[in-house]
Design goal:
Length: 285
């Protein structure tokens, strides 16, 4: 039987029953009305005991501040992922079109044996349907009979599709891109792209970054040991490895993230996100 809805007052009482210190009921009620008890409850996970209660001195304001830290961090990381996604579209489409032609992506022989071309075409068709009001989609439908060059259609590709597009390339193409664009091996490039897809999806759907075990673990990143392979730190280090602009990473992204960590230093426990104490130095490129 499903749980019955609870009023804000009942939700506050439930927090107190679990051991949460709610000193400002007005603020707590306002926060619950904006965020919802269900979403906010996930940020209490680090404070839970084995008996399901909260640890001593668990304050609502601290949990709320963790939520705010997570929200702001997600926004910062997503802005970097956005730049990487645009970069991948540009690089993949440029390489593929110059080697196989503007519509070479429509020919299954230009991919490896693991490529499911029927499924790929279905994804492309679905993207066109869901974006049929876009100006460039209308333009290609009307002027070119629905034919799209790779540099146009890739504008609709999700990060996940870009990751799969690379994974399905012929080995020689994978090696060229891994070596000349990412300065690494094919295995690493595929792994890092998969990790960034996972990170991107969490950010895009307002998922929780704090105290989360990621489904993907990046391959061969210096400073990321086995114990923190599925942490936020590992995922951000994969993003660092793929991000194309060293100066922007060091001078735009890192200072903003450092400032955020400084702002919330009283509530953030680095071990809960896999960050080492000297994370800023290790993250610098």
């Amino acid at each position: 039987m499903l749980k019955q809805p609870a009023t804000y007052e009942q939700q506050i009482e439930k927090l107190r029953e679990h051991g949460c210190d709610v000193t400002d009921e007005v603020f707590c009620k306002e926060a619950l009305s904006r965020i919802s008890y269900y979403r906010l409850s996930a940020y209490f996970l680090p404070f839970r005991t084995s008996q399901g209660k909260y640890k001593t001195d668990t304050k609502f304001i601290k949990v709320y501040n963790l939520y705010e830290f997570d929200r702001k961090l997600r926004r910062i990381i997503f802005s970097v992922i956005e730049e990487l996604e645009v970069f991948l579209r540009a690089q993949f489409s440029y390489y593929h079109s110059h080697k196989y032609g503007s519509d070479g992506y429509l020919n299954p022989v230009n991919f490896n044996s693991r490529h499911n071309h029927e499924k790929f075409n279905e994804r492309v068709t679905d993207l066109l349907k869901s974006n049929n009001n876009s100006a460039f989609v209308k333009h290609h439908m009307n002027k070119y009979g629905g034919q799209f060059p790779i540099w146009a259609i890739s504008e609709l590709f999700t990060f996940g599709m870009l990751s799969y597009f690379y994974a399905d390339m012929i080995t020689v193409d994978q090696k060229y891109i891994a070596r000349n664009i990412f300065n690494t091996s094919v295995t690493n490039a595929k792994s890092w792209l998969y990790c960034c897809t996972d990170l991107r999806n969490l950010c895009a759907h307002y998922g929780r970054l704090y105290y989360t075990i990621f489904s993907a673990a990046p391959a061969q990143i210096p400073g990321v040991d086995v114990k923190i392979k599925r942490s936020l730190y590992a995922a951000v280090m994969a993003l660092r490895a793929l991000y194309p602009d060293k100066n922007k990473w060091n001078n735009e992204f890192l200072p903003v993230m450092t400032a955020l960590f400084d702002e919330y230093t009283d509530v953030v426990e680095l071990r809960h996100i896999g960050f080492p104490e000297d994370w800023e130095g290790k993250m610098r490129r």
